[in-house]
Amino acid sequence: MSAHCQVTGARPQFGKRVSHSHRRTSRRFNPNLQKKTYDVPSLGRRVTLTVSARGIKVIDARGIEAVVADMRRRGEKF
């Protein structure tokens, strides 16, 4: 499974690591992903999501029901 947030869609970003002598090499900025389990009353079961820290804040603000409804509209699997 690729490293992406199921709620916000955050994926790894790419950039350069710059040394003291200013040599540049490639590096990867990974999102802060966590596996979280939520109880979703409308589905009647628990759902385990791979979400970023920002995705957890979105769920706390909007509620798991609204987020799951948006995910189902997009066709996201959970």
Notes on the protein architecture:
There is one protein chain. The protein has 78 residues and is an alpha+beta fold. Helix content is 27%, strand content 36%. It has helices at 53-62, 64-74; strands spanning 13-18, 24-29, 33-40, 45-52. The strands form two sheets. The protein has a two-stranded antiparallel ribbon. Strand 3 (33-40) and strand 4 form a beta hairpin. Helix 1 (53-62) packs across helix 2. It is elongated, with a radius of gyration of 16 Å.
Q: What number is the mean pLDDT?
A: 95
From the N-terminal CA to the C-terminal CA, the straight-line distance is 13 Å
Q: How would the global form be characterised?
A: elongated
* Largest β-sheet summary: 2 strands, antiparallel
Strands side by side in the biggest sheet: 1-2
Query: Helical region count?
Result: 2
Secondary structure: number of strands:
4
Strand coverage percent? 35-45%
Fraction of residues in helices? 25-40%
Structural class designation: alpha+beta
Low-confidence stretches: none
User: Helices and strands, in N-to-C order?
Assistant: EEEEHH
Radius of gyration: 16 Å
Biased composition (Basic residues): 17-27
Family: Belongs to the bacterial ribosomal protein bL28 family.
Pfam families: Ribosomal_L28 (PF00830)
GO cellular component, one term: ribosome
Task: Label this structure with key terms.
single chain, 78 residues, alpha+beta, two-stranded antiparallel sheet, 2 helices, 4 strands
Summary of the model, kept short:
Helices cover 27% and strands 36% of the residues. The chain has helices at 53-62, 64-74, and strands spanning 13-18, 24-29, 33-40, 45-52. A hairpin with a 5-residue loop joins β1 and β2 (24-29).
